[in-house]
Design goal:
Elements: H1 4-27, H2 36-40, H3 55-62
Length: 63
């Protein structure tokens, strides 16, 4: 039962810290552009991927 006397203030402190961190994140602009990264991942890259080596090229490299 005596453990509760330490846990309750600890949970209140943890709750206050999390609320303060949330308000800090909102004020610093962390939640301003919620759709930008979602659309950015769908855009094509300008540079094409490197071509893969076929088996004949791999055999030539071993020699």
């Amino acid at each position: 039962m005596s453990v509760i006397y330490g846990l309750i203030p600890g949970m209140i402190l943890l709750g206050l810290v999390s609320v303060l961190v949330f308000f800090w994140a909102v004020r610093s602009g962390q939640y301003e552009d919620m759709e930008g990264p979602a659309h950015r991942i769908l855009d094509d890259d300008d540079m094409p991927a490197a071509p893969e080596k076929n088996e004949q090229d791999a055999d030539d490299d071993r020699l």
